[in-house]
Amino acid sequence: MSTISRANRTRVWRNWAGNVTARPAREESPASADEVAAAVRRAAEDGLTVKTVGTGHSFTAVAATDGVLIRPDLLTGIRRIDRAAMTVTVGSGTPLRRLNAVLAREGLTLANMGDIMAQTVAGAVSTGTHGTGRDSGSLAAQIRALELVTADGTLLTCDADTRPEIFAAARIGLGALGVITAVTFAVEPLFLLAAREEPMSFDRVTADFDALYAENEHFEFYWFPHTGNCNTKRNNRSAGPVAPPGAVSGWIDDELLSNGLFQVANTVGRAVPATIPAIARLASRALSPRTYTDIPYKVFTSPRRVRFLEMEYAVPREACTAALREVRAMIERSPLKISFPVEVRTAPADDITLSTASGRDSAYIAVHLYRGTPHRAYFTAVEHIMTAHDGRPHWGKLHTRDADYLARAYPRFGNDYLRRVLGA
Predict the structure, then answer these.
(1) φ/ψ of residue 110, rounded to 5
(2) Residue 6 burial by Cβ neighbours in a 10 Å radius (0-12, 13-18, 19+)
(3) Which of the four pLDDT bands, split at 50, 70 and 90, describes residue 94?
(4) What 3-state class would DSSP assign to 35?
(5) Which of 66, 174, 214, 417 could form a disulfide bond with 165, CB atoms 3.0-4.6 angstroms apart?
(6) 226-282: per-residue pLDDT in tens?
(7) Gap between the Cα atoms of 265 and 280, Å rounded
(8) What contacts 263, CB < 8 A, 6 or more positions away?
(9) In angstroms, rounded to a whole number, what is the distance separating the alpha carbons of residues 47 and 141?
C-alpha cells in the first residue's frame, strides 16, 4: 500500500520568515525514491510542475509552487555509513540537527556547517547553505554523491566520475534538475573546536581582516550598524579537553541576550526607529569575551529564534573590507535605522557550477532586518554596493538579480548539459 498522502488543495504553505506563501494544487509525502518518481510522473500527466520544500528557511520563493508540492518528511534517516570511504548517505528530508547528532554518536562529523540546524539536508545543499572557513567550504562542497529523480521520473545517481556534468550542477541545483532523494557526504573522525569570541572595533577588524582570516580555520564577525563595534568569532581545532560554556553563562549569551532581549530590542526598534542607534550601542557592548571547546556542531551552530529577512552576497574575498566600508558609509549618510548586525564570513573556491564560491575565494556579507520592518530601501542600497564588486547573491536569500546578471556571474553555468535541459 502506498504511503503517499495528498492534502487539501486549499492548504497554504508559508516559509519560516512568513514573507512567501504558496497554494499548491496538491501535496505529496513520498516515503521512497520510487514513490517520488511516481509522484513526478503523475504530476507530468496532470500538467503540473513539481517543487520540493524543506523547512522553509529560504527567504525567496525558490520552493513556492501552484503545482505539486513534495514534502520530504518521510525521506529521512541514515542509509549507510561507509567508514572505509569516510562517507555517510542520508535521506534528503533528514534535518541537519538529526544528522549532526547521529554522526556525533558514531564518532564522526561534517568538516564545516552553517549556524542553523533546522534545515533539511536537501534544502540546505540545494540553496548553497554555508558556514565560514579558510579551507573547508559549504555543505554542498562536502557532497560525494547524489541520488535524484529527474523530470521524467527517472532515478539516477551522480558523482565526480558518474555523470560528472550533472553532479557539478545538481549539488547546488535550486531543485531545477530534479528531486534529490539522498545525499552522500564526506565525513571526518569527530574532533574538537576551540571557540574564541571577542569584541573588536570595526577599524581593527577591517584593518586586520586578512591576518585574522589566514590565522584561523574559521573566522567570522558581526558589525553593529550605528556603532564602531564588532563581535568576532574564531574557531580552530583543539586537542581538548572538552570545556563547553557554563550552563548559566551559555544561557545568558545564547538565549537571554541573543534571542530574548534581542527580540525585545527589535520589537521596540520596529515601533520606534529613532531608538535603534542607542539600542545598537547597548547591544554591541552586552556580549563579553568568552572561550569554550566542544564537538563541531555544538560550536558552529546556535539557536535562532528571532525571525527576520535576509540578503547575502558573496564577493571576491579581496573586496570584502572595501565593500563593508561602503555599506557603513551608506548607512551613516542615510536616514536608515538598522537594528540587526551585519554578518561577514568566508569560503574557499570550489568547483560547483552555481556555488557562490565557484572558482574564487569568497567573502559573504549578510544584512538582516527584523520581520515586519520595511526592508527594500536598505537591501537595495546594499545590493548596489555588492553588485559593483561582482557580488553573487545567496540563492536562498532575498535579491533582485535576473538571468542576464547571473549568466555573467556564473560563467561555468553554460555547459552542454545545462543548455540542453534548461535552454541557452
Answers:
(1) -70, 155
(2) exposed
(3) very high
(4) helix
(5) 417
(6) 999 999 999 999 999 999 988 756 655 666 566 677 888 889 889 999 999 999 998
(7) 9
(8) 305, 306
(9) 35
